[in-house]
Design goal:
It is built from 6 helices and 29 strands. The protein has 348 residues and is of the alpha/beta class. Strands 5-4-1-6-11-8-12 form a 7-stranded mixed sheet, with helices on both faces. It has a 7-stranded mixed sheet with strand order 14-15-18-21-24-27-29, with helices on one face. β4, α2 and β5 form a beta-alpha-beta unit. Bound molecules: guanosine-5'-diphosphate-alpha-D-mannose (GDD) and magnesium ion. Magnesium ion (MG) binds next to loops.
Amino acid sequence: PPVREEVSLVDAVFLAGGQGTRLHPLTETLPKPMVPVANQPWLDRLASGCRAQGVTRILCTACHRWEVIRDHFHGRGLDEWISLILEAEPLGTGGAIRNAAMGLKEPFLVFNADVVSSADLAALYRFHLEKGAAVTIALTPVSDPSPYGVVDLAPDGRIRRFVEKPRREEAPSNYINAGIYVFDPRVLSVIPGGRAVSVERETFPGLIEAGLPVYGFPVVGYWNDLGTPAGYLQVHRDILQGRATIPLLGVRQGGGWVGEGVTVERGARLVPPFVLGDGCRVGKAAQVGPWAVLGPRVRVGERARLQDTVVWADAIVGDGVSLDRAVVGYGAVVEDERTAAVGVMVRC
Ligand code: GDD
Ligand code: MG
């Protein structure tokens, strides 16, 4: 295939139809890629990152709570840019790719829409074309590969084996599937229709078994999966620390980022790093931070303490409540530190 200088006219499929079970109850009412990352829906940040890197159209597959994505993009004049492709029943990652991409003629990108990464998409795409691969899987090294797809990589970059979520001692390497792929359209015809298919458990091992060229491309830079409570909090720590280059909203002040119309009452302490969204109110003698991200209009009660915690818009943290490693959902009310109402995840 011809080698291109840059990525142009490339479509990207977003896989955004999972149940988001590991982030329940937060994602009971929300598709996982819609969770806010530093006060902006992750899907928006992922889409704009793709646009900046040359992606021209997004085919966003959705199932669980798909109407949240529809309502989010509705009326914003983005129909040319992002199309929503619905699944009545979850089709699995492979079925979703097949359903969305059938008819595409050029190699296209695929993203697990819960992955936060600074991967160079043009470099990934060029590598794919140079190798003439059927699929190229972006890879990243991790210390414990067992919760991921793990590869055995030949020196020339060919993947000899792909094993999804192996036992730790059976993982063939520390290189994992980063959840970003380039697919050649010819692969679509090997994905069976009419039932759920997992690319990780079925398609990738099948292609390798059949001798088709499946390549791995180690990406440099930041990588994490925000789909677990630990991952979600880690992504926020990494953003606040500047390890993940995600722009923060607000102006720099006192070692944090402060939005408009913020009220900080007498005796309250802001311990950097922190983010206060527009219209936040921090009560008397409360402590916010370190590692606290408050969404717009969040209210923090008197003497409350929040660290290593992300609070989504309009939530209320009551007087005297102490939160550590918590994620508080939209509009949730945390009355005491043992509150575990829907939308509140305390000490995850
Ligand atoms: N449309 C659609 N339909 N999307 C789906 C479906 C489905 O039936 N099932 C899952 N998805 C989407 C999820 O919404 C998510 O964005 C993505 O596919 C991956 O699913 P996860 O549930 O987050 O998978 P994982 O994190 O356990 O593992 C995957 O990601 C790892 C990297 O983070 C695998 O691809 C691993 O191999 C990989 O290492
Ligand atoms: Mg995931």
